[in-house]
C-alpha cells in the first residue's frame, strides 16, 4: 500500500502525528490512547499496515 494512502486512512480515523524522527513518524490515537510508529517508505506492506492499525486500536478491515 502506498504510504500516502495509509497515512490518509489513519488521519481519517482520528489519529494524529505526534512526532517525526529519523526513519519513522509516530502516530497517536486519542480515543484509545495508543501510539505506533509508521515507517517513511513509499510502499508499506499490507501485513505491516494491519499490525499498525491493530497497535492503534483501529479495525484491520
TrEMBL record:
One of its GO terms (molecular function) is hydrolase activity. Keywords: Endonuclease, Hydrolase, Nuclease, RNA-binding, Stress response, Toxin-antitoxin system. InterPro entries: HicA_mRNA_interferase, HicA_sf. SUPFAM superfamilies: YcfA/nrd intein domain. It comes from the Bacteria. Belongs to the HicA mRNA interferase family. This is YcfA family protein. It comes from Nitrospira moscoviensis.
Amino acid at each position: 500500500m502506498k504510504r500516502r494512502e495509509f497515512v490518509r486512512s489513519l488521519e481519517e480515523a482520528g489519529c494524529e502525528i505526534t512526532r517525526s524522527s529519523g526513519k519513522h513518524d509516530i502516530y497517536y490515537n486519542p480515543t484509545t490512547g495508543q501510539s505506533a510508529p509508521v515507517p517513511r517508505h513509499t510502499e508499506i506492506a499490507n501485513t505491516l499496515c494491519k499490525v499498525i492499525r491493530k497497535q492503534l486500536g483501529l479495525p484491520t478491515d
